Amino acid sequence: MPVGSPNLPRSTLSEIHSQEECGIPLNTRWTFWLDKSIPGTTVAEYEATMRKLYTVSTVQGFWSVYNNIPDVDKLNVRYTYHLMREERRPVWEDEFNSAIGEQFSDCLAEGDEISATVIDKVKELLPDVHFPAIFYKAFQTHSAFEGDKHKSSWKG
Fold first, then answer.
1. What pLDDT score was predicted for residue 152?
2. Between 19 and which of 25, 60, 145, 156 could a Cys-Cys bridge form, CB atoms 3.0 to 4.6 Å apart?
3. Which positions are tagged coiled coil (predicted)?
């Protein structure tokens, strides 16, 4: 049965917390997010659907969260998980978003989050995966991008 916005039980949260206290530290903390994407919404409406599930700082904490959230095929339609560095929110306008492992650092371009060379990099990293459709779209051209309008509300 599909679930909407899953909650981690208290016993699981306690287990994750224990793993975080004694686990192997990550270089940076990573946050699991859940959102419900609805076409045509504003950034504010989209952010209202976002929920932080847990921020991890150890390898064991990561796997504890990962193994205790419902599989993506168990989520209702339009719900999506995101894994973001520190507590950055998964929005187009966050200029500091990056990919885990830093494999895309050589794909950075001036004024864009990552350049079109990311497609080649993904194919290089995943040579055995067939992508039936693949494209790159600069975030400034995405229909949900609100640019400076959103940035000004964050810097206040």
1. 37
2. 60
3. none
